Each structure stands twice: as structure tokens, then as C-alpha cells.
Please model this.
Amino acid sequence: MRRNMRRNYDVAVIGAGVFGAWTAYHLRNVGQRVIILDAYGPANSRASSGGESRIIRMGYGADALYTRWSLRSLTLWRAFFQQTGHPLFHKTGVLWIARDEDPHTLNTLTTLTEVGLPHEKLSRSELDARYPQIAFGPVAWGVFEPDSGVLMARRAGQAVVEEAIRAGADYQPAAVATPSGKRRLASVTTQSGDPVSAGDFVFACGPWLPRVSPHVLWNRIFPTRQSMFFFGGPPGDGCFAPPAMPAWIDFGEQMSGIPDLEIRGFKVAPDRHGPVLDPDQDDRAVTKEEIVGVREFLARRFPVLGNAPVIEARVCQYENTSNGDFLIDRLPDLDNVWLIGGGSGHGFKHGPALGAYVTARVTKGGAIEPRFGLATKETVQRRSVF
Model:
């Protein structure tokens, strides 16, 4: 990656995760002089965007805003991959697994219909016939999104940064000091003491975002430890890879998973918020207790994999807001400093749409969607966006 430093920029983007990468990419495509700064590098192993894979699905219960953003993002992701020659989307389909009166999945069904997205409602007998490798237990029905699937997250995020650089953005591997001042920020300073001047500053720092302004964000962004596991299936058995196996979401169990893609293994990820995590200092080794919990679920839902070996495991982190809505707003007292984050658990897919939205606000102004505003972020977690 090119590492240039001009004297002045239109926009400095701090953070090269999926939100920062797509914001920089869109800004550069509308002619802005852009620099990207990241302490550890695009899609690094400590970042929320650093995992191998992420589901992209349209279902959001009754929340049509995120359904429409997902649809737009999938269109932009696919166009980007076609344009750049990066085949980093797998159209596996996404299966929602539901109990009898599951309000979230019922609302998802209604929203998918209203938005006009392809989907199937599957009865229990249809689920059993189509997916005999899954033991559905108390599951009564499901919803299948045929056009959704999986993004290869780490490589996709890096590709967006590379294309932004190719289009003329600069990139600097550097940590940035906490901004301070009133009304407008003139520059930020890297750990080596170099000033970076810009007209606007976009802080899209993932789990590091609270450090940008601790007095504003420390109790409003929640970095938590999240584990994920890849299990090895039986030799020569394609039941846990596409097309036999889709990506899936078991909302009642707070579990989701991704089929065996690119021969990496069958991925299972709990969606419950873990303990607080320090993204710089904490170890990333999974614990025995975490493995036991996932194995117990695996034995019930995918019995053939009950004793399957763990072939890879990693710990990343969420960085949610109090309710799971994104944070897109200016930093109080500094009109040209933007705070972008709160996307973990569901945000990676939205990178293209969010980047376009932030680019429009930075370059054209306009009102911010109220639910993204800092004023709506509370100090107690009550997650309502899934």
C-alpha cells in the first residue's frame, strides 16, 4: 500500500475497517483529497472487520431501514467485486430458523414481502426434507433468502482500501492522538508527532472509538469479547458446504453460522455479548468454557458435528451502541469531526451504504437520521437491532 503524506486534505479518515474504508472510497470517488490512517492496518486481526467471513442478509424484523441498506449494500458490494475482479461474495442463501410465534422472524417475513425481496417461507416438513443434516428440535418453520450469502470480510475490506488508494487516496499506518479544541479541528497528530491537516475528520475506529472522546463515548460504545469457531466436517462429506448448506441464523439460540467456504471449516458464532475487551491489550485465545458452550449447541443442532474437531478459533470484538443502531454524528464542540461506529454484530454488510451516507453528509450536509445521532445513545445496553 502506498504511504504518502500531503500537507492538507479535504478529509482524513481515521480507521481502515469496513466503515472507514468505504467512506474513504466514496469520498475519493467524488473528488475529495483523502488520507486514511490506521494504527494496525486494514482488516487487522484486532479489528472488528478483521474476521474471515461475515453474513450479508436482508432480514431485520420490522426494521425496513436496515433491510433497504442491506439491499443497497449488496448491490454495491457485487458491483465492486465485478469491477475489481475480487470474487469475495458467496451466494449461499441465508436461512432464518424460527419457533412457533417468533415475532422477529414473522416481522422479517412481512418486511421482505413489503420491500419486494425474494424469499421462501418453509414449513417444518420442508426444512427437514431440504436440510436433513440439521436437527431442528423445537424449530417450527423458517425463512430462506436465496440471494443473500457471505462476504469474505478480511480480504473484502482490504480490497476496498486498496481501490481507494488506487483512486488517489493516501494511506498512513499510524495511531492518532485524541483530538481536542473548540468549533473546528485543524489537524490531528500521529504517534510520531506528524500533523495531518484536513477540512473534515472521520473517526471510524471500531472498538477504539471511545478513546477518541472518552468523556462523550466511554459509556456509549461497548467493546465486548466475541468468540467464533470453525469445525472440521467428516471427510468427503459435502453436507456442510454450499449448495447443501446455507448460511444460517438461529435467533432463538442467539447463534449463527456459515457453511464450509474455501475449505476453512464450518463456522459457528454466538451472538451474545461477551465481557468487556481491551482491543490493544487483551489476549485473543478462546477459553475451554467457550468451546464447551458452542459444542453443546452443535451437538443438538448439527449432530454429525457433535464431536467434530475445532480446526480454527479466534476472538474478535463487537463495538455496539446501547441499542445496536449505528452512530453517525458530529463530535460535540467540533463541527468538522465525525464519529462513525456502533456496527458490530450486523454492520459489516452495510459498509457500502454507510460509506455513501457519510460521504453525502460530509460533502453536502443535510440532516442526520435521528436514530443514528449521539443523543440517542444511552449508557446501558438494551439491544433492539439484530
The two ends are 35 Å apart (CA to CA). Helices lie at 18-29, 64-84, 103-115, 124-130, 153-166, 214-217, 288-301, 351-364.
